[in-house]
């Protein structure tokens, strides 16, 4: 209900473009969710484990395809309890909490007929190397990928001790066949099986529901509540809903005065930390994510604190225009996210298009899924707008999820100042022409805190003491 779309859905885009070119941008923005976000209850732990293991089995079955695509015959992963390879966390079953003893997995691209493509040993004796040697001898892979890449987290999880163990215990015939194929782990970890989307959407909806409630008069009392109160309210809410998270929620007041020094001395000089008590007329910003079922979300939204008795129509139009500009940059980035293109090329094309349309902003998108910042190419980082070494040169993969994270500058006449408008929203890859779609939707309207004069609620005080009502 907070986000009814102003533009009718039924008018074809092409027609609107003909009538009024300025409307075209607004019409692309019909990606606003069609209903208000609700809290989505998670399945029981037992049911969750079943769901996750089904996804995991499907992913493991896909490994031979990945190996063949990147031209390698086998993939070897070895680790000891508490010193796991990064890839382990995407390979394990739901009831595994760590590797045990020495846990070794071997995957074969083209197994001999009638033999498996996946092997796992859990052992604490040198016997395990004999067992591996048996399989290697019968499968005879010409190249064996190991996770020793110097720059890519997800392809570098082989501990040095394990590598030494391999060299000590395997014949040179096999260790000479070790190669680095970083895209194997990147594609394995980054690829999302279809069944995950239904749940990812529920997670995303829940994150929106939490933000919508946090940025409301139920939780925020202007002049009383601090940004930190809202952050901890979000943490409590996550716990109450049986979710977890992968980073501390970050709530701040988007200000106009740099406080850490001159604008070029700091990444985001326009976020004011001079004051943390929320006041009427503030524009608020949140960076927030939830974790459940082995998936992570990442969202940044904006809110406006109305003066008493104002309604949504009182939100300054300069702020609304800033948000619309951020929406425009989202469209630009997504239109450039062609599978197979490198993150750096997508970044360059998007920044060029943004400049040609006459505005300024920053792009820093990342893959998301098993990890908040997951495996795959990066499309900019806040401090690397000319390209990201190594990670930005990887090709964009299909069947992945991405966080479209960015900010734009916009002059707000009502404030006589240029302000930053931050947005972050998750998308998933769709086969065919479509490209990418919002998992739940994107923010096109401000969240708002609406207070009545003389009617201050005790809710904010409750929230601060952590005893919020349902
Ligand atoms: C790792 O990163 C460094 C610094 O960017 C670069 O010089 C080196 O070539 C990279 N190595 C690989 C294998 O990507
Ligand atoms: C959270 O988990 C507890 C324990 O299983 C359960 O009683 C409660 O209903 C769950 N809450 C939500 C919101 O799912
Ligand atoms: C994803 O990309 C790979 C490699 O380009 C291709 O082989 C595969 O068919 C694509 N998958 C889908 C579902 O389009
Ligand atoms: C707007 O800001 C500029 C630059 O800071 C200043 O010179 C100007 O006087 C301001 N205008 C108003 C109406 O306050």
Automatic annotation (TrEMBL):
Protein name, UniProt field: Peptidase M24 domain-containing protein
InterPro entries assigned: Creatinase/aminopeptidase-like, Pept_M24
Protein keywords: Signal
Superkingdom per UniProt: Eukaryota
Domain Peptidase M24: 200-392
One Pfam entry name: Peptidase_M24
Signal peptide: 1-24
Transport among keywords: no
């Amino acid at each position: 209900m907070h986000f009814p779309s102003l533009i009718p859905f039924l008018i074809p885009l092409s027609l609107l473009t003909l009538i009024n070119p300025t409307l075209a941008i607004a019409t692309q923005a019909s990606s606003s969710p069609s209903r208000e976000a609700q809290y989505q209850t998670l399945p029981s732990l037992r049911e969750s484990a079943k769901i996750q293991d089904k996804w995991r089995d499907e992913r493991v079955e896909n490994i031979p395809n990945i190996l063949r695509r990147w031209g390698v015959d086998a993939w070897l992963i070895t680790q000891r309890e508490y010193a796991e390879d990064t890839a382990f966390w995407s390979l394990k079953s739901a009831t595994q909490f760590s590797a045990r003893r020495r846990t070794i997995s071997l995957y074969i691209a083209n197994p001999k007929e009638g033999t498996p493509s996946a092997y796992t040993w859990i052992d604490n004796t040198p016997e395990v190397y004999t067992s591996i040697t048996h399989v290697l001898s019968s499968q005879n892979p010409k190249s064996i990928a190991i996770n020793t890449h110097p720059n890519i987290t997800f392809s570098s999880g082989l501990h040095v001790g394990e590598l030494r163990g391999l060299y000590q215990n395997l014949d040179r015939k096999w260790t000479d066949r070790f190669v680095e194929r970083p895209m194997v782990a990147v594609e394995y970890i980054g690829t999302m099986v279809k069944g995950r989307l239904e749940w990812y959407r529920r997670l995303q909806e829940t994150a929106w529901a939490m933000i919508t409630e946090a940025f409301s008069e139920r939780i925020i009392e202007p002049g009383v509540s601090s940004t930190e109160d809202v952050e901890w309210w979000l943490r409590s809410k996550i716990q109450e809903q049986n979710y977890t998270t992968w980073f501390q929620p970050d709530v701040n007041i988007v200000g106009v005065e740099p406080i850490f020094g001159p604008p070029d001395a700091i990444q985001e000089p326009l976020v004011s930390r001079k004051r943390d008590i929320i006041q009427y007329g503030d524009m608020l910003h949140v960076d927030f994510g939830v974790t459940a079922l082995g998936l992570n979300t990442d969202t940044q939204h904006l809110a406006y604190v109305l003066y008493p008795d104002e309604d949504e129509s009182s939100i300054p139009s300069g702020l609304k225009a800033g948000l619309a500009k951020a929406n425009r940059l989202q469209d630009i980035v997504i239109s450039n996210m062609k599978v197979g293109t490198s993150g750096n090329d997508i970044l360059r094309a998007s920044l060029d298009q943004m400049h040609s349309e006459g505005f300024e902003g920053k792009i820093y998108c990342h893959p998301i899924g098993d990890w908040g910042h997951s495996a795959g190419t990066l499309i900019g980082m806040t401090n690397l707008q000319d390209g990201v070494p190594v990670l930005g040169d990887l090709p964009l993969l299909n069947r992945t999820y991405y966080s479209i994270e960015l900010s734009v500058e916009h002059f707000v006449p009502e404030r006589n100042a240029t302000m930053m408008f931050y947005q972050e929203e998750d998308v998933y890859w769709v086969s065919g022409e479509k490209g990418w779609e919002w998992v739940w939707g994107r923010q096109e309207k401000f969240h708002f805190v609406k207070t009545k004069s003389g009617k201050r609620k005790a809710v904010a005080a409750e929230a601060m003491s952590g005893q919020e009502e349902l």
